[in-house]
Write a structure and sequence with these properties.
The complex is a heterodimer of chains A (324) and B (191). In chain A, 36% of the residues lie in helices and 21% in strands. Chain A has 324 residues and is an alpha+beta fold. In chain A, the strands form two sheets. In chain A, strands 1, 5, 6, 7, 8, 9, 10, 11 and 12 form a nine-stranded mixed β-sheet that branches. A three-stranded antiparallel β-sheet of chain A has the order 2-4-3, with no helix packed on it. Chain B is 2% helix and 52% strand. The radius of gyration of chain B is 22 Å and the shape is elongated. The chains are: A alpha+beta (324), B mainly beta (191). Chains A and B meet through helix 7 of A and strand 3 and strand 5 of B.
Chain lengths: 324, 191
């Protein structure tokens, strides 16, 4: 696409005003709670190993010992955890983050992420704070909570923990031909059902937290056994079927983190994706000691979309990718 | 043959699916924050006109279909084929069969320009313009002064199409008709 984009913003002036108000509201929310605002690099020497998140590479001129390959950050997580290890206490950041190839009604490759960390909090403590922030701004009812397992049992008719791979795959045949499902992992099936079946059903429900993800989807959350099942202390908030945030009772064990990075990279290689450098500075911070904490990342553009009652990010972002 | 990856999918793209040429109508990117991305795609099969919904793992690709839309003038029919000619001055002609012409048949007027969709170089479908102007060749006698009633009667047009028209329309008049709905729009004054 070489054509010149329209010079005009795709968002209305009302949306731009509401964006400014939202930002002021967020800063006030954290000021009242004694949570400190921080800034961390947008351009870092490591990207992310997560198989489903692709970092955008940059090629800065090396200065001194800095590398000639750098990455636009997909989340400020590693840098913020290094600050936690340095003893900053509760912190938040309004970060601009980048995810390659994510573009659609509810995705823009560059977006505003509100990320915060609360030492001493558990996942349920932090869920209460997320609810105060989101419902306080949107004026919506308090969220209910449903487990990942129950939301699948109720809306997709499968058990994400106990149904066999064959059963999960068969459930996906409504959207994909069996021949193409053969290469699907268990998590691919669950992600397909989440996007095509569960999320649309949640659009009809009020605000709802989904908790207790399968261990394979723990990402950076700690895992424990609950009701005889290995579950990640991870939560997401859905408002009108829009996935707003992703939070963890954070994994702080450097050995376990190192293993997950290695497992990520093995999965990347077998999926034909490039291996990503592992962030050694982040691992060193974990080694030095990141305090027990819960953390969450919340999409501010999507929050504004809900506030404005629209269903397209282009209506709330001045210049989305196609106009950037 | 070229192929398109899911990140190139957009409305209007012509692709091959299950061996048939299809046009992408809508493409929606969905992805759980930490999960696999998918593209949910609505397509219309250009052979059958049926609408399909398919889901693709992001990064999958589809072969491009050799489908192009060209403006062509309708020349004549020999009974088996309907012959069209490119309007670019090349005088290149294309015979369209009954299946390709199908719905457009009742709107075909010699020397008018139609959109001919070529698949692998052969006419696949013929689409009339949204509005055509055609002469009335048969209808019941007009009932003057009865315009307020808003009643209608069938009128046969020069191409054989039958449309419902107001009662005051008479044989020999030229009408503007919407080909999408098959409805009368108005009389064309210039006749």
């Amino acid at each position: 696409m070489t054509e010149t984009p329209s010079w005009q913003p795709s968002a209305s002036l009302a949306a731009l005003e509401s964006r400014a108000q939202q930002l002021a509201w967020v800063r006030d929310f954290f000021a009242q709670r004694g949570v400190m605002e921080v800034e961390t690099p947008v351009l870092g020497r490591c990207g992310v190993t997560d198989i489903n998140i692709d970092s955008i590479a940059a090629s800065p001129t090396p200065v001194g010992s800095s590398p000639s390959r750098a990455w636009l950050q997909t989340s400020p997580e590693y840098h913020m955890k290094r600050l936690l290890a340095a003893g900053v206490g509760s912190i938040y950041q309004v970060a601009r983050v980048f995810r390659d190839g994510e573009s659609g009604r509810r995705h823009n490759p560059e977006f505003s992420l509100l990320e915060w960390y609360r030492p001493g909090f558990t996942d349920s403590d932090l869920m209460a704070e997320v609810a105060e922030l989101v419902c306080g701004w949107l004026g919506c009812e308090a969220p209910t909570t449903i487990s990942y397992r129950d939301v699948f049992l109720r809306f997709a008719g499968v058990d994400p923990f106990l149904s066999s791979d064959t059963e999960l795959s068969a459930r996906c045949e409504q959207w994909m031909e069996p021949s193409r499902l053969q290469a699907f992992s268990r998590d691919d099936c669950l992600d397909l059902l989440m996007s095509c079946q569960v999320e649309p059903a949640l659009a009809e429900a009020g605000p709802v937290f989904v908790t207790g993800y399968p261990e394979s989807q723990a990402a950076l959350a700690r895992v424990s056994e609950q009701d005889g099942l290995r579950q990640a202390h991870r939560f997401e908030l859905y408002v009108q079927g829009v996935e707003l945030c992703n939070g963890y009772w954070e994994l702080t064990d450097p050995g376990e983190q190192r293993q997950r990075f290695a497992a990520d990279n093995r999965a990347r290689v077998s999926a034909g994706k490039p291996e990503m450098p592992v962030d050694q500075a982040f691992l060193a911070a974990l080694q030095a000691g990141v305090p027990d904490c819960a953390g969450v990342a919340l999409g501010l553009d999507r929050l504004l979309m809900l506030k404005m009652g629209v269903d397209d990010l282009a209506s709330v972002i001045a210049f989305p990718a196609e106009r950037a | 043959m070229a192929s398109y990856s899911t990140n190139e999918f957009r409305g209007g793209l012509k692709v091959l699916l299950d061996g048939d040429p299809c046009i992408i109508l809508e493409n929606e990117f969905v992805k759980p924050g930490k999960g696999q991305a998918f593209n949910r795609v609505k397509l219309r099969n250009l052979m059958t006109n049926r609408q399909w919904e398919r889901t693709f793992k992001s990064g999958e690709s589809l072969e491009a279909a050799d489908v192009i839309d060209l403006e062509m003038e309708y020349l004549y029919t020999d009974g088996e084929f309907w012959h069209f000619m490119k309007t670019d001055g090349s005088f290149e002609q294309y015979p369209a069969d009954a299946k390709a012409v199908s719905d457009a048949l009742k709107w075909l007027k010699e020397q008018d320009v139609y959109t001919v969709t070529l698949y692998n170089g052969a006419p696949l479908t013929v689409t009339p313009p949204n509005f055509v102007e055609l002469e009335v060749v048969d209808t019941d006698p007009g009932m003057k002064g009865d315009t307020a009633q808003g009643g209608t009667k069938p009128a046969t047009l020069s191409t054989g199409a039958v449309v419902n028209v107001p009662l005051f329309i008479t044989i020999g008049e030229v009408l503007k008709v919407d080909t999408r709905s098959g409805e009368y729009v108005n009389r064309v004054k210039s006749s």
